[in-house]
Amino acid sequence: MDEQLEIEQEGVGAPAWAAFGDLMAGVLGAFVLVLAAALVGQLDLATQLQAEVQQRLAEQARREALERALAGPLADGRITLVEGRIGINSAVLFATGSDQLHADGRALLKALAAPLKTYLAQRDEILMVSGFTDDRAMVAGMPFADNWQLSAQRALNVTRALLADGLPPDAVFSAAFGSQQPVASNDDAAGRALNRRVEIAPTPRPKRALAASAP
């Protein structure tokens, strides 16, 4: 009788232990999955951080290379270099309301052409020449419809000057911003003078689309 009762008790307890084992196995499996996900997330984060560090180092090297190429004009204050953009006050290049280059402005561009050509030859980049104005409307008698046209013509004439001084045609393009993107307030003369400018910015060359393969 006692032996029969012991067997019955063992029979009752076995399923409970089996269920507990299944539960622990499930918990362990879930823990392994969470741990694996955490490790994958850490690896992705480390990869992302490494890519950001490499990008920052590349940008720093790019700025330093540009500073070395333009050391002369930078030293005498004829140009500025901010975040890789070469800035030239429009008064150095043009008379008020004009798109015709001053002789001194033309000489400055000639001095910039050689180092910029060397810089571009060493890197897969092109130059964007951008024209900017203040927000004052055109005076009657000016040959421009608005600030957009004035900034476009100035950028185009600077681009043509750089091309004439040896920069390859596929390495320079022009853009016009009119009175948009000011760097100072247009409420006073000093701010407006800063906003009337031309910027020359090296930028990555657009990737050429691969030619479609023949059928």
Detailed description of the structure:
The chain has 215 residues and is of the alpha+beta class. It has two domains: 20-63; 70-204, OmpA-like domain (60s Ribosomal Protein L30, Chain: A), CATH 3.30.1330.60. It has helices at residues 2-69, 71-75, 90-93, 103-122, 147-164, 189-195, and strands at residues 80-82, 85-89, 125-132, 172-176, 197-204. Strands 1-2-5-3-4 form a five-stranded mixed beta sheet. Strand 3 (125-132), helix 5 (147-164) and strand 4 (172-176) form a beta-alpha-beta unit. The radius of gyration is 33 Å and the shape is elongated. It starts with a helix and ends in an 11-residue tail after the last strand. Mean pLDDT is 83; it is low at 210-215.
Structure at a glance:
It contains 6 helices and 5 strands; from the N terminus they run ααββααβαβαβ. With 215 residues, the protein is of the alpha+beta class. The protein has a 5-stranded mixed beta sheet.
CA distance, first residue to last residue: 88 Å
Spatial ordering of strands, largest sheet:
1-2-5-3-4
Number of helices in the DSSP assignment: 6
Oligomer category: single chain
**If you compute it from the alpha carbons, what radius of gyration comes out, rounded to the nearest whole angstrom?**
33 Å
Pfam families: OmpA
Protein name: OmpA family protein
InterPro entries: Bact_OuterMem_StrucFunc, OmpA-like, OmpA-like_sf
Organism: Roseateles violae
